[in-house]
Write a structure and sequence with these properties.
12 helices, mainly alpha, 325 residues, four-stranded parallel β-sheet, 46% helix, Rossmann fold, 4% strand, Ferritin, single chain
Length: 325
């Protein structure tokens, strides 16, 4: 297996040569939509093997295998022109009302190409191409790549609020112990760490195909920022979720408390609300006076508040206990 640090460093070094990418956040965003398309293409190859009637929601010329897979394929100015004037605009306006088409439109609504050198972009694409996301070793490798990139962002102090260490997410999910048949929510899901841990936790309980189908739809998430939202959907696909359309690009706090009804209640909430952020003006008016604040790290939007719609580890409950709200 390739060394993760070396692979990440190689990709970052290539991108640093490009005049258009001048920060880790831009480089990660660029890699985010590339990984999404590559992982989606690998996932489609599996679906084509097992579903005789499978039809891709993507036009033929936009599928990764037809423009990116050939190492000697389109490059330079022709590659830049294709991405800037064909690929990204068409993905943002992809037709179709099915879940997958909607998911792709959502993933690319704010996607940008920052790279200005098509030859360097081809080099990056070729590195991404070297990973087979249908192979278990390479899936594990991507998990390490993904974590390494997020740690780099966190250590740089740039948008690090959407990375929660794997050990923390695993510990919380293990303590809350969701059970098969329960619904799970992360209202500030970031890159999907809690959801992935919950899904893997439930898979240990699954015994039949029906159980797996239950897992496909038993969770939901909401993420405010575009980049972590794309990474979350990519992460979920990588962990066997066929259409992670139940993760919305939205702001949980923008919806007034009174609008949350009984039908939207869930059984389990696992989350780590973001720290260090400020909400936009007016958000606080959606809530009763005792909860009003614009600080995203305030206890008003912490576990005790979210616990009102589900069950989670909450202040005042015994470690490992399951608190019903």
């Amino acid at each position: 297996m390739p060394n993760v640090s070396n692979l990440v460093k190689t990709i970052q070094d290539i991108m640093r040569k490009d005049a258009g990418t001048y920060g880790d956040a831009q480089r990660l965003e660029q890699l985010g939509w590339m990984f999404f398309l590559k992982i989606f293409d690998d996932r489609e190859m599996q679906l084509e093997l097992f579903q005789d009637d499978y039809r891709s929601p993507l036009p033929k010329n936009l599928r990764w295998r037809n423009w990116a897979a050939d190492e000697e394929g389109i490059t330079g100015d022709a590659l830049l022109d294709f991405i800037d004037n064909s690929l990204l605009p068409k993905l943002k306006s992809l037709s179709g009302s099915d879940k997958m088409s909607t998911l792709i439109r959502m993933a690319f609504e704010d996607a940008n190409n920052y790279m200005k050198n098509g030859t360097l972009m081809r080099q990056v694409i070729n590195k991404v191409n070297g990973i087979d996301f249908n192979a278990s070793d390479d899936r594990h490798l991507f998990g390490d790549i993904y974590e390494k990139l997020l740690k780099d962002l966190q250590s740089a102090g740039n948008a690090g609020e959407f990375y929660t260490p794997r050990a923390v997410t695993q510990f919380i999910v293990d303590q809350v112990n969701p059970r098969l048949g329960e619904t799970v929510l992360d209202p500030a899901c970031g890159t999907g760490g809690f959801l992935v841990c919950a899904i893997e936790h439930l898979r240990k309980q699954a015994k039949t195909e029906a159980d797996e189908r239950t897992i496909q739809d038993c969770f939901s998430g909401i993420e405010k920022k575009h980049l972590p939202h794309v990474l979350c959907m990519t992460n979920l696909m990588l962990h066997g979720i066929d259409v992670p359309s139940n993760v919305r690009h939205d702001n949980t706090l923008a919806r007034p408390l009174r609008d949350w009804g009984p039908k939207e209640r869930v059984d389990v909430i696992v989350t780590n609300p973001p720290f260090g952020g400020m909400e936009e003006d007016g958000i606080e008016s959606n809530y009763p006076a005792e909860f009003r604040t614009r600080e995203s790290s305030s206890p008003a939007v912490g576990p005790d508040w979210f616990c009102r719609t589900g069950r989670c580890l909450a202040r005042g409950s015994k470690r490992g206990s399951r608190k019903r709200c």
